[in-house]
Amino acid sequence: MDQVPAAASADVREARLMVNCLRANAVRIGAVLSGSVLAVALSGPAVAAADIGLEPTQAPRGAGIQLTFELPQERPDAHTAEVRLDLPADLPIAEVYPMSVDDWAPRITNRTLPEPLPGLHGGLMTEATESITWQLVAPPADDPAPVLLTVSVGPLPDADRIDFAVTQTYSDGTVVRWGGPDAQRPGPVLTLGPADPAAAGHGAHHGDSAAAAAQEPPAPAAAGSDDAAGTGMGLLLAGLAGGAAIGAAVVWWRSRRHRGGVPADLPGARADADADEGELVGTGGTTPWRLTEQ
User: Partner of 170 for a Cys bridge, out of 78, 83, 108, 165, CB 3.0 to 4.6 A?
Assistant: First the structure.
């Protein structure tokens, strides 16, 4: 039998050893990769950043509505201590008022408008809100809930959308910027739809509020006042006419008494000799009586 050379046997052993090493390395690399993928899959939802909430997200142009901003609490060892809402300078809103929220104190910063804007209830506004800053004025809870801040705004401008910028400051100094030029996260957006025709006559749109008021129908109370005045005048004239007729009858009766006494056929009437001349005492009440000539 032919014998394998010693050099060839050494090469075979070395090749087998290399194959075994590659297999072992492949198993270790696969285990490491599988563990990394599993760790990322499990930790992904926990580290995902939340978005700032806005309710509602749509509104008609020219309307007046209330907007509620919801800010998440994302710091495990801190709480939200300050929130600033910045309104877009290129889309001014005539009236912006923060609504009352427990434990939060608002501060409003205004700016002068280049041109006045009609307000929600008529009149022209020469200033508009530039920003609102809320400060937390009460101790936070052990597990702080999301921050809910409500703002009343209107009339909404003639645009497709309003992009708000919100700056959230935590008690440990961490600042999160939602929207705006230095945004770290997407900011809240309000989508604007077609204007509501019912709000067109109440100064809801940009334009001449005096002209809009002139187009409104006259108040029903004005017509009612004219009718009441006409009715009152008619009653007054009727009363005067009735009084004149009664006065004429009394004068005629007195003249008749001077000439011939009280008529005999006057039911319920009598002449009182001790009474002043011309006094007539009748039955009173609703009993009818009449004056007759003798």
Answer: 78
How many other C-beta atoms can be found within 10 angstroms of the C-beta atom of residue 288?
7
User: Which two tokens mark 131?
Assistant: 């920003």
Please give the order of strands across the beta sheet that includes 65-71.
53-55, 65-71, 147-154, 95-98
**Beta carbons within 8 Å of 105's beta carbon, 6+ residues apart:** 134, 135, 137
Structure tokens at 137: 């004025």
pLDDT tens track for 89-144: 999 999 999 999 999 999 999 999 999 999 998 899 999 999 999 999 998 888 89
User: Rounded to whole angstroms, how far apart are CA atoms 264 and 254?
Assistant: 15
Instruction: Compute the chain's Rg from CA coordinates.
Output: 47
Per-residue pLDDT tens digits for 268-290: 444 443 444 444 444 444 444 44
| In the block, residue with structure tokens 């950043």 | 49
Cβ(93)–Cβ(111) below 8 Å: no
Find out whether the peptide bond into 267 is cis, omega within 30 degrees of 0: no
**Counting runs of H as helices and runs of E as strands, what totals does the chain give?**
3, 12
- Partnered with residue 162 across adjacent β-strands are 190
Whether a cis peptide bond, with omega within 30° of 0, leads into 72 is no
Beta-strand pair 165-170/175-178:
antiparallel
Query: What is the bridge-based pairing of β-strands 58-60 and 104-118?
Result: unpaired
